[in-house]
Amino acid sequence: MQKPGKATPGPLSLNTATVKVQWSLAECIEGCLRHGITGISPWRDKLAEYGVANAARHIREAGLTVTGLCRGGMFPAIDAAGRRAALEDNFRAVDEAAALNAQCLVLVVGGMPAGSKDIAGARGQVQDGIAALLEYARPAGVKLAIEPLHPMYAADRACVNTLGQALDICDALGNGADDTALGVAADVYHIWWDPQLAAQIKRAGRRILAFHVCDWLVPTRDLLLDRGMMGDGVIDIPAIRAQVEAVGYDGFCEVEIMSSENWWKRDADEVLRVCVERHASVV
Amino acid sequence: MQKPGKATPGPLSLNTATVKVQWSLAECIEGCLRHGITGISPWRDKLAEYGVANAARHIREAGLTVTGLCRGGMFPAIDAAGRRAALEDNFRAVDEAAALNAQCLVLVVGGMPAGSKDIAGARGQVQDGIAALLEYARPAGVKLAIEPLHPMYAADRACVNTLGQALDICDALGNGADDTALGVAADVYHIWWDPQLAAQIKRAGRRILAFHVCDWLVPTRDLLLDRGMMGDGVIDIPAIRAQVEAVGYDGFCEVEIMSSENWWKRDADEVLRVCVERHASVV
Asked: Which residues of B touch A150 (CB under 8 A)?
């Protein structure tokens, strides 16, 4: 079957969550080199473990592109002190993204504070938090990528749940559709089901700062840790890739698979080998 | 805390899924009588077990209102014969709803056929199926209630995932906003997260044919069978109830809790007692 759009997807990037149980960040960098993967997207826990300066030097020497830093966000809190602490942590995340020359800082915005049922209030706190963070990130040259998360995470991880909702925030806080200081991370896992997907990708245009791939398994056995390898699920990944490319996205395809019962239990070199194969055959 | 809207919710209805492991339909009917519950919404498997005529007589003698029949739908199939078989089964569901004098037939529309990644195609099949079913249901006096299901069910249970999407189908197939032959079932579990919820409830108006309650637990341990009792989760149920009442909904609150590890393991009379309490205190 002919895949739509460009014959070949953008280059592959490894989100370190994909082998988080098996490898340190240093091992991820070396693994990328062994497997011909030219991009990497570290999580901040792995980065802290290695040290930002060490990691930045190693990644630079390896010649890898940092397609994103995971993650900032988690803005809502029960009180002003909590929100201030969250914001301060986000400032540090911006500093780290700058040190790594990351293409963006990915924002998983957070859900409702414990005990709250006020999702509209949480959404307001998120927008306020992003507004304050943008003032810090823009002069630092760090782009912010709001990642809408699947609605099943609305309560506890991210109350921004559609591309349309993320773009509403971009429209409210950014300087129009050409301002890429604030944009979105489009992860097929979170957005594939959205009946408004095609329209919202068009609306996003150049504000798509990252494109993440994995797959939706049927059945899905765990809300958080049962993501599938590209090709093993039901998402028409090439169709979505063609849509983001049609509005100008020409960056990496970042693979991010959280899979406690399958891929996290395998040899990490095998995982990367399959990622490379599937990136070529089904993305 | 003062609940918004009317002080008292509409009367309680028992969806038989709530005690499906413990009770037959006959036991559900008797249980409703014991607990002062005046509405019931049977699933078709329980109905088939009892026999439609027996069930209809028992429910009538008990003086219960049938707030819905669960369920029609499951329209998409791999080929025309499969779609025809699905439609024929839906015709039988309409017949049963008519025999029970049900306020609506709830439609869980179905996901993608096995092996398919074409969600747009599945959505097209759903709309075609509902169009054909409406021609059968309208003269029979049976209202069809499209139930948008949470996006985590998009692949395998229902590819209609928002109220807005369900209303697009109503607009396409019905005779305007006053035509209640085709409407929606609003279940807080499926729609609470939607940033467009308030706007879409307004748009729905009188086409809200059923209002279902339960709660979203944090954490949710199973995609299908870990629904919470009203008040045990994070959904602001009174706020959503106030919104549906504001557009004219004055029917029952139907409780539908699928809970394999908690409520299905308890004594069914205890479950109904808690439903009645929570209906009064937190809905």
From this structure: 151-152
Is residue A254 a part of any domain in this protein?
Answer: yes
Q: Is residue B3 part of a domain?
A: no
Determine the structural domain holding residue B241 and report its residue range.
Answer: 12-281
Nearest-CA distance from A134 to chain B in Å?
23
- Tell me the pLDDT of chain A (283 aa) as tens digits: 445 557 799 999 999 999 999 999 999 999 999 999 999 999 999 999 999 999 999 999 999 999 999 999 999 999 999 999 999 999 999 999 999 999 999 999 999 999 999 999 999 999 999 999 999 999 999 999 999 999 999 999 999 999 999 999 999 999 999 999 999 999 999 999 999 999 999 999 999 999 999 999 999 999 999 999 999 999 999 999 999 999 999 999 999 999 999 999 999 999 999 999 999 999 9
In a domain, A7, yes or no: no
Q: Look at residue A22 and tell me if it is in a domain.
A: yes
Total Cβ atoms within 10 A of residue B180: 18
CATH code of residue B57: 3.20.20.150
ipTM metric: 0.96
Residues 6 or more apart whose Cβ sits within 8 Å of residue B133: B72, B87, B90, B91, B94, B107, B144
- For A158, name the nearest residue in chain B, comparing CA atoms only: B193
Reading the block at residue B69, the tokens are 């029949």
CB-based contacts of B85: which residues, under 8 Å, 6+ apart? B77
What domain count does chain B have? 1
